[in-house]
Design a protein that fits this description.
The complex is a heterodimer of chains A (904) and B (75). Chain A is mainly α and 904 residues long. Chain A has 37 helices and 6 strands. Chain A has a two-stranded antiparallel ribbon with strand order 1-2. In chain A, β1 and β2 (270-273) form a beta hairpin. The radius of gyration of chain B is 17 Å and the shape is elongated. Classes of the chains: A mainly alpha (904), B mainly alpha (75). Chain B: Keywords: Cytoplasm, Cytoskeleton.
Chain lengths: 904, 75
């Protein structure tokens, strides 16, 4: 045994030949030759090299033979075999044993003794083709005439007359059961017949059957005389074509090649059997059912052919084509097995065992699974027409939602391949921030025209149509954000940290199989991968922004300077600016104001701010329109550039400017009213000596306190209800923010809230106008009171001078006053007294206007839905002073109350 | 040296026994000697499909030969 191990296959084969035939080496030369030829030509196995599959087949075979006990025994033996590692090719031996297996209950079909003549002739296989050996095929006869088929059989044997008489004479009386005979002939013999038939024109009318009508596919009419002739014509090749011929044809059709009889019918776009070919209906039906496979194959093939060379179709499309190709390859493998089978049958001629011959029915069964697969693929191809990239993946994914596990596995496999490039894009994007999407297939789009300052906002966007359906919108947004953050870090923050340091999780090179797992298991790995990347990158970005670029400090600086949070600084600035700003706007120069600003900074707590912030603080003059004073055009500015400009965008800054102007104006009113009050307090004592003024002064005091109340409440509202509340909200959100988008969103919300609460948005235009009018009234009142005091003080001074002169003259011993002087003095006093009613009426007018405006303001406030504005209206009119004066305020107040209570 | 060799021989023998048993179960009609030849051929990577067809063919040939001998002896 050990010695034999080293022997070559040829030696082994020879001993095998001797052993089986029981003859000496010289006698088996023919057989040996044959064996070497067969083995040499079929070196590569056409079957799966799967031991498990083979063992399963053996078990099935045993079960089929109803030998369950043996099947169990076999499993036992097989296990034993597996435990011993002596054999390398277990599957091969098992397969050999399986193919040699015979059912002991069946009569041996090994070799029908009757055909030994043929076998003798076949000992040298190269002679096989030369053996003319055919006869009529019973199953090509109409089934409804069984008894005739027998006669036809005989007659055909008698008349087919081409040198095969001997064979049939042996065959006829032989012990072969008829069933075996009919089973035996279909492939080998009919094949030969059909091969012969191929060499003859199918349509040519047979000369021998000239009298008979042309056979059609429906032989029901006048069958009796035609039958024998048809059988005879089989030999001539013009009658019904054999099943084997059809099988051969079908095999070509499977590959999308027109067969001899079955051809592509282009107007109807399907394979059709030539109508002229006589064929029985069942075969015709079966073949057209089989031909569907060819049609499906063509469809898929057309798609892959047209797209695989199209570069613009993109990587996803290419991998889809590759997946289709893979499936087609599988299908071609099946075809090649079938072809090989056909070949083997051809080579072996007659002696093909019944079980392995090819028939249409067998083909129907064998191609059932491939057909279902191809059908799915064809449907998929139809559905994917015109789609690419993520859209294509979506389309494929939609087909995976089926209950059929096989189809699902197939689609899942394709989806894995298709989504592989997408996954690659995705990983490149979220780990390196690089977008290698030449064909615009990925769901993140980049706009190369956008400059870096708008990178965060405008450069990258989601292509909605390209988001595969297995990626949720939320995930897609996160993916976009991750890559955007990385790019932002690189291009805007000039942060050169390698991505590996940001992300501790190492990126893995995923195979297509992983891709499927990731995409199907949404809850698990993929989600957590994205989440981790998102979390790490965003955190890193925020860290960089906060540490290197002091985002939060800048935010606070905005609050302090542009939103007037730094009270001492603002007050001092206003003090310093007052003389400048009362001048006409055209006479202001920025450099003067900048100097003042610096003085203000140095003199107040603002000096302790970091220079990084202070150097950004600047003065800005708005556009001057005629008649403007400095107050109207002055504005503080805060320069933002670099990464923080992403949060403080140009729109944001213009919002800040608007808010600053409003607050500055309100602040100025407070400032003016303080001045008014100061004037009143200082002058009250002085003017006590002029009792005629007391009425006017009282009016002034009343109006001033009314205004002070209004402005105080307004300031309270702005500071506490608007700024502080929104700021607190913003600060909380910024502290909890997970990514830059959260901060930007919170900041935008903050600005929007302030704008709308400060009545600066479009809805509150009328309210703001009233408020402006109030402010204008205050300025007017200031002017009026100033004039009043000026004239009053002038008068007072004149009187004091008059009295002084009088006293001086008395001391000098003269008359205090002359009548002339007295008259002069009295005339002047009278003149002054005459101006008092004018002042009075002016003040009354002012008061009237002012109150009208305030009432209108209150009325508008009533209609506002904002809670805090409602409260403001209660504060402003806490003692119902205005309500008592204006009947319009009452019903509207009631109405709003009613509305509010009904809302609750 | 001898021990592993004999152990190996034992293993081979056992394997062959198991295979013979399977062969018997499947009713392949192979005796020990042909089986061992087949196993060797298979181990050399020969296509079992081809081998099985060769064996079938050889059997057919020998059967028919016998039959013809019978018939000639009868005739």
């Amino acid at each position: 045994m050990a010695a034999l191990d080293q022997k070559s296959p040829n030696v082994l084969l020879q001993s095998l030949c001797c052993k089986i035939t029981g003859k000496s080496e010289a006698d088996v030369a023919h057989q040996f030759q044959y064996a070497v030829r067969v083995i040499g030509s079929n070196y590569a196995p056409t079957i799966e090299r799967d031991e498990f599959l083979v063992s399963e087949k053996i078990k099935k075979e045993l079960l089929k033979q109803r030998r369950e006990a043996d099947a169990a025994l076999f499993s036992e033996l097989h296990r034993k075999l597996q435990t011993q590692g002596v054999l390398k090719h277990r599957w091969s031996i098992l397969y050999l044993l399986l193919s040699l297996c015979e059912d002991p209950r069946k009569p041996s079909n090994r070799v029908p003794v009757c055909s030994y003549g043929a076998l003798l002739a076949q000992a040298l296989p190269r002679d096989v083709h030369s053996t003319p050996f055919y006869y009529a095929r019973p199953q090509s006869l109409p089934l409804s005439y069984p008894e005739r088929s027998a006669t036809a059989h005989n007659s055909s044997m008698a008349t087919s007359g081409i040198s095969s008489m001997g064979v049939f004479s042996i065959n006829g009386p032989g012990p072969t059961p008829p069933s075996l005979l009919t089973g035996l002939q279909p492939v080998g013999e009919s094949m030969r017949g059909s091969r012969l038939a191929w060499t003859l024109p199918v349509s040519s009318s047979p000369s021998g059957a000239g009298a008979a009508p042309r056979p059609t596919s429906a032989p029901s009419s006048s069958p009796a005389p035609r039958l024998p002739q048809r059988q005879r014509r089989d030999g001539d090749g013009s009658a019904e074509i054999g099943e084997a011929a059809l099988v051969r044809d079908i095999l070509y059709v499977f590959q999308g090649i027109d067969g001899k009889f079955i051809k592509m019918c282009s107007p109807e776009n399907c394979y059709k059997i030539d109508l002229k070919v006589p064929l029985c209906k069942s075969l015709r039906d079966t073949s057209s059912r089989l031909a569907e496979l060819g049609w499906l194959h063509n469809k898929i093939r057309k798609y892959t052919d047209s797209h695989s060379l199209d570069r613009a179709f993109g990587l996803v499309g290419q991998s889809f084509c590759a997946a289709l190709h893979q499936e087609l390859k599988e299908y071609y493998r099946l075809l090649s097995v079938l072809h090989a089978q056909l070949q083997v049958e051809d080579d072996q001629g007659v002696n093909v065992s019944v079980d392995s011959s090819l028939t249409l029915r067998r083909l129907l069964v064998w191609t059932y699974d491939p057909k279902v697969r191809l059908k799915t693929l064809a449907a998929l191809v139809d559905y994917c027409q015109g789609r690419k990239g993520g859209e294509l993946a979506t389309a494929v994914h939609a087909y995976g939602k089926t209950g059929d596990p096989h189809m699902r596995a197939l689609i899942q496999h394709i989806l894995g391949l298709v989504s592989h490039p997408i996954l690659n894009f995705l990983y490149r994007w979220i780990y390196d921030g690089e977008l290698e999407d030449t064909y615009h297939e990925f769901f993140v789009a980049s706009d190369p025209t956008v400059k870096t300052d708008r990178l965060w906002h405008d450069k990258y966007s989601l292509r909605k149509s390209m988001i595969p359906s297995f990626i949720t919108m939320d995930q897609a947004r996160k993916v976009l954000l991750i890559g955007k953050s990385i790019n932002f870090l690189h291009q805007v923050c000039h942060d050169r940290t390698p991505p590996g340091k940001i992300m501790p999780a190492s990126k893995s090179t995923d195979s297509p199989k992983d891709a499927t797992e990731l995409f199907t298991d949404l809850e698990g790995a993929f989600q957590s991968k994205i989440d981790a990347a998102y979390f790490e990158t965003s955190k890193y970005l925020l860290d960089v922004l906060n540490k290197n670029y002091q985002l939060l400090e800048h935010l606070q600086a905005m609050r302090r300077y542009l939103l007037l949070g730094q009270g001492d600084f603002i007050r001092h600035l206003m003090d310093l600016l007052k003389p400048e700003l009362v001048r006409a706007a055209t006479t202001l120069y920025q450099h003067n104001l900048t100097g003042i600003l610096e003085t203000a900074v140095r003199a107040t707590n603002a000096q302790f701010d970091s220079p990084e912030i202070l150097k950004r603080l600047d003065v800005r003059l708005l556009e001057v329109s005629p008649g403007d004073t400095g107050w109207d055009v002055f504005s503080l500015d805060y320069h933002v550039e670099g990464p923080i400009a992403t949060v403080f965008t140009r729109e944001c800054m213009s919002h800040y400017l608007r808010v600053f102007n409003f607050l500055w104006r309100a602040k100025r009113m407070e400032y003016i009213l303080t001045d008014i009050w100061k004037g009143q307090m200082c002058n009250a004592k002085l003017l006590k000596s002029m009792p005629e003024l007391s009425g006017v002064l009282h009016q002034c005091h009343v109006l001033a306190s009314e205004m002070v109340h209004f402005i105080h409440q307004m300031q309270y509202y702005i500071t506490f209800e608007v700024l502080e509340c929104s700021w607190d909200e913003l600060w909380n959100k910024v502290q909890q923010a997970q990514d830059l988008d959260h901060i930007i969103a919170a900041h935008d919300v903050f600005l929007d809230t302030i704008i709308s609460r400060c009545l600066l948005d479009v809805n509150n235009r009328s309210l703001l106008n009233q408020l402006r009018a109030v402010f204008d009234q205050i300025i007017e009142f200031q002017n009026a009171q100033d004039t009043l005091y000026r004239s009053a003080l002038e008068e007072l001074q004149l009187r004091v001078q008059f009295e002084d002169k009088k006293r001086q003259r008395v001391e000098m011993g003269e008359w205090g006053v002359t009548a002339e002087q007295e008259a002069e003095e009295n005339r002047r006093v009278q003149e002054f007294k005459d101006t008092i009613p004018k002042m009075c009426s002016q003040l009354r007018l002012l008061t009237h206007f002012y109150q009208g405006i305030v009432q209108e303001f209150l009325r508008l406030l009533m209609t506002c839905s904002d809670e805090s504005l409602q409260f403001l209206s209660f504060r402003l009119d806490f003692n119902e002073h205005y309500k008592a004066r204006d009947p319009r305020l009452r019903p509207s107040l009631g109405a709003t109350r009613g509305r509010r209570s009904s809302n609750i | 040296m001898a021990n592993p060799a004999s152990a190996n021989m034992n293993a081979v023998r056992e394997t062959m026994d198991v295979l013979l048993e399977i062969s018997r179960l499947l009713n392949t009609g192979l005796d020990m000697e042909s089986l061992s030849i087949c196993v060797r051929l298979c181990e050399q990577g020969i296509n079992p499909e081809a081998l099985s067809s060769v064996i079938k063919e050889l059997r057919r040939a020998s059967d028919s030969l016998k039959a013809s001998e019978n018939s000639t002896s009868q005739g």
